[in-house]
Amino acid sequence: MSKKAKTAITPTREENFPEWYQQVIKAADMAENAPVRGCMTIKPYGYAVWENMQRIFDDRIKELGVQNAYFPLLIPLEFISREAEHVEGFAKECAVVTHHRLEAGPDGKLQPAKSAKLEEPYVIRPTSETIIGDAMARWIQSYRDLPMKLNQWCNVMRWEMRPRIFLRTSEFLWQEGHNAFENEEQARDDTHKMLNAYAEFAENSLAIPVIRGEKTADERFPGAVMTLTIEAMMQDGKALQAGTSHYLGQNFAKSCEIKFQSREGVEEYAHTTSWGISTRLIGALIMSHADDDGMIMPPRIAPHQVGIIPIIRNDADTDEIMSYIDDLVAKLKAQGIRVNIDDSEGRTGDKMWGMIKQGVPLRVEIGGREVDEGTLTHTRRDLGRDSKASCSVDEFAGSVQGILDAIHDELYRRAQTLRDENIKDVSGLGELEALFKDNFAGFARMDVALIEGADYERITKQHSLTSRCMPLDAPDKVIVGKAY
Amino acid sequence: MSKKAKTAITPTREENFPEWYQQVIKAADMAENAPVRGCMTIKPYGYAVWENMQRIFDDRIKELGVQNAYFPLLIPLEFISREAEHVEGFAKECAVVTHHRLEAGPDGKLQPAKSAKLEEPYVIRPTSETIIGDAMARWIQSYRDLPMKLNQWCNVMRWEMRPRIFLRTSEFLWQEGHNAFENEEQARDDTHKMLNAYAEFAENSLAIPVIRGEKTADERFPGAVMTLTIEAMMQDGKALQAGTSHYLGQNFAKSCEIKFQSREGVEEYAHTTSWGISTRLIGALIMSHADDDGMIMPPRIAPHQVGIIPIIRNDADTDEIMSYIDDLVAKLKAQGIRVNIDDSEGRTGDKMWGMIKQGVPLRVEIGGREVDEGTLTHTRRDLGRDSKASCSVDEFAGSVQGILDAIHDELYRRAQTLRDENIKDVSGLGELEALFKDNFAGFARMDVALIEGADYERITKQHSLTSRCMPLDAPDKVIVGKAY
Per the CB < 8 Å rule, is A44 touching B68? Predict the structure, then answer.
């Protein structure tokens, strides 16, 4: 017989990390593969995480003077061709619309109608620099129109041959911000400002510690002069690029004709930036925090921050227990706490495991004894049964926000510890190669000068490594690792 | 010389209603035609209206137990073919994706890559009954899984040959709700419940009075058993269908195999509904409330409820006036009022006309005299300069919510009066024909039995009329009119 404790998720992280990831998503009921090649369906519990992310980050960008708008899904081929590197980067993965009508074919099955072939096909946006640049060219006339800061929350499409839910799907949801400025200094400064907004969001809302860095030339966004990134380490030691902020120089301004009358009365090209985060952050959440029993939701984006399980041993108690719970819920909701009561027909044990697998940060059980005593029993998802404790309803209502904050801090601390323990300094390429030959699961940090030359290319290719970033606080270094 | 008062919008409603509509959108900076056939770009001020609509209605549907989720943009042809009427209704206007990569053609220009032709093309969703039905078939096993109420906020595409901003565009934004129930009674009941949610939203948030009715068989959603609608009258007397709620019977449940184990242990098909509102509501807002000086925003969805114009006659006053305004803004924001200060470089008159054209419900002017007196001057957009009044800052802060409510009520009253004055009862088809021959701009109401037969078809065709609905409070009648 195995000595292992039984876990709710099979396999465990150690046994098979990629399969564990899929099973956590399934057990938490967050998403599934769609019947459309490479696409996912985001189920209500997963979508609620995205809604919470949107709400928090949308408030933040509005504070930073960004305005939301909406640009077309379809992009004319001519637009996407304008910027040479950009088209090179995206042409290989574009979904192409060629017809605008269906008709019955000779076999009676539907097919694209021959008479409805588009003269000029469109691509479904893989990103919107070109079409937003085209609008900015019309909307910006003078320095008085600058800075212009636009954002859209939308779907985009990049055809994926090897999809993975949340991490790499042909269609995904994101926000894409597009800002325009008078000069390079303002634009570069804003590129850093948006990266900081991402880093603070990852750390303060998602409990994911990130390295703020600049991408090396090879890893830049197609068409960018500078790409900044936040890189997180997943529990298997791999990197996940969690958000990027690009300084595009005047490349798109020139290809889209974004010109303005300067303060000196001279016509100049604007300096533009773009910045985005996507539903892959949900994948980052899972691989940062979940354990072998399932998801652990960081409290600030958890769909349910507190989950309540009524323990009803005989029907006569039902009304009393439920009204006791209603009082508690009112106290929690008055504080803005998101509460879920599982009053379904199931067994208490199943409900408890359901909440564990969904990663509800704080579970509360209330039965007849608790009602008699005026108490409740609560358990932290991150600490498990050892954290089970009883207290009065008022005491709980008074401390619940503090407990949620403590859970956030604990998740952050764990992720940071794991990451810091798995960053190794290496002094040369020999050491780098030896490290990953030995199946090292983590990041190597070394002098950035070492990435020049064929040897680095050979080693990274052989071990599926990439340059993740040059940390902003140590720009002469580079972080190297495997990545999602 | 013309005796007409000069208006901010040219032409006026009377001169050319369709062109007036376009000019109001342009003057308010809400949207523009996109460089993609039939599509629009929603500019920040227009998108802010949509965001406010979303926030209000999303809260409402969550109260009704609906969960948001996200389903794929692309729909396999095989799915859309499953329901015969449905495919008939939508096949003619589908954008079809046939390739997943671009390549350079012989002329160096990009073209769909021949080697990346999809075996089975996809359509961009015109609506998602079929793909959501496919998911429900997997997610629903037992009566315990019912009712299931799902919604998504997303973009959809229906190829338009004669597009008009907000009213008819190839791509538009909407919410589509899809609910499943155990039996017909529950499903029909819910179809009415969602229609009522729309009607209340239109009346209480958008200040648009609506007729709640059922569509005649000809006008039903493709695949529906019953389509309920809310119909509004625009200022030119035309109808605008502002929201629909469909009872789909078991049609989609059968074509998608949405089966469940009933309470009696028998396998049954679910009864499903779908319901949607879209960005065309912004068009309805404009045509309901705007006047010859531009937009008038109903206060509850206005991006800026109060617009403040500092009147600075000499630079020395600037700090004093701006700090006075900051105090006012703090008092308004504390009440949740959305405030905009126009502290740009322009002239006071231009700023005032800017706010008029954007339809800011309540304008406030503050200059040196107001600061000295501790007062402010305010003007209602709906009543114009006659409503200009002064009061103390505290008095204003105490009454602003009441003034905004009064503006809402006034806009609603005007729209209702206009509508009620332009509904004519007709007793036969001869009278109907005579009415519209005489260029009647409004709705005719008559016995529903009159729509059977060739005469009705001839008259409606000749005068571009349609049966709008059979009012729920007078189901033996039908409303007939021109429509958007």
Answer: yes
From A261, A286, A256, select the one nearest A274 (Cα to Cα).
A256
Residue closest to A196 by CA, chosen among A243, A149, A247, A146: A243
* CA atoms in the 13 A half-sphere facing the CB of B180: 31
Q: Burial, B250: exposed, middle or buried (Cβ in 10 Å; 0-12, 13-18, 19+)?
A: middle
Task: Please answer yes or no on whether B36 and A75 come within 8 Å at the CB atom.
Answer: yes
Q: Is residue A294 included in any domain, yes or no?
A: no
Final residue of a structural domain among A361, A395, A415: A415
- Both B145 and B242 in one domain: the answer is yes
User: Phi, psi at residue A337, to the nearest 5°?
Assistant: -80, 135
- Which of A40, A51, A61, A73 is the mutation pick for testing B, counting most B CBs within 10 A? A73
Q: Do A34 and B131 touch (CB under 8 A)?
A: yes
Q: In B334-392, which residue ranges form alpha helices assigned H by DSSP?
A: 348-358, 368-373
Contact between B110 and A68 using a beta-carbon 8 Å cutoff: no
For A157, name the nearest residue in chain B, comparing CA atoms only.
B73
Q: Does residue A319 or residue B4 have the better pLDDT?
A: A319
Evaluate whether B68 touches A40 at the Cβ level (below 8 Å): no
E strands in A125-225: 148-157, 171-181, 211-214
Question: What's the pTM value of the predicted model, to 2 decimals?
Answer: 0.96
Assign A1 a pLDDT band (cuts: 50, 70, 90): very low
Residue A467, helix vs strand vs coil: strand
Do B282 and B382 belong together in one domain? no
Residues 6 or more apart from A200 whose CB is under 8 A from it? A60
- Return the pLDDT at A315: 84
Contact B120, B77 (CB under 8 A): yes
Does residue B296 belong to any structural domain of this protein?
no
Instruction: Show the tokens assigned to B411.
Output: 């806009």
Complex ipTM? 0.96
The CATH number linked to A128 is 3.30.930.10
β-sheet bridge partners, residue B478: B446
Contact yes or no for A100 and B103 at CB 8 A = no
For residue A12, is it within any domain? Answer: no
CB B289 within 8 A of CB B207: yes
If one counts the domains in chain A, the total is 3
Q: What is the C-alpha to C-alpha distance for residues B161 and B376, in angstroms, rounded to an integer?
A: 50
Q: Residue B445 is part of which domain span?
A: 423-481
In a domain, A2, yes or no: no
Per 3-state DSSP, chain A is made up of helix, strand and coil in percentages (nearest 5) of 40, 30, 30
Q: What digits encode the pLDDT tens for the residues B413-471?
A: 999 999 999 999 999 999 999 999 999 999 999 999 999 989 999 999 999 999 999 99
Q: Are residues A324 and A446 in the same domain?
A: no
- DSSP code for B11: S
CB pairs under 8 A between A and B: 185
By DSSP bridging, strand A423-425 and strand A375-380 are: unpaired
Give the CA distances from residue B472 to residues B212, B230, B262, B393, in Å, rounded to whole numbers and listed in that order.
6, 10, 32, 47
Tell me: do A329 and A227 sit in the same domain. Answer: no
Query: Given the DSSP bridges, would you call strands A239-247 and A443-447 parallel, antiparallel or unpaired?
Result: unpaired
In this structure, the answer to whether residues A264 and A318 fall within a common structural domain is no
pLDDT in tens, A232-271: 999 999 999 999 999 999 999 999 999 999 999 999 999 9
Residue B231 is which amino acid? E
Domain CATH code at residue B323:
3.40.50.800
Residue from A32, A41, A77 whose CB has the most chain B CBs within 10 Å, to mutate: A41
Q: Which of A45, A63, A98, A165 to probe by mutation at the B interface, max B CB count within 10 Å?
A: A98
As a whole number of angstroms, the distance between CA B90 and CA B481 comes to 24
Which chain B residues touch A117 with a CB distance below 8 Å? none
Residue type, A128: S
- Residue B1, pLDDT score: 42
Helices and strands: H and E segment counts in chain B: 14, 25
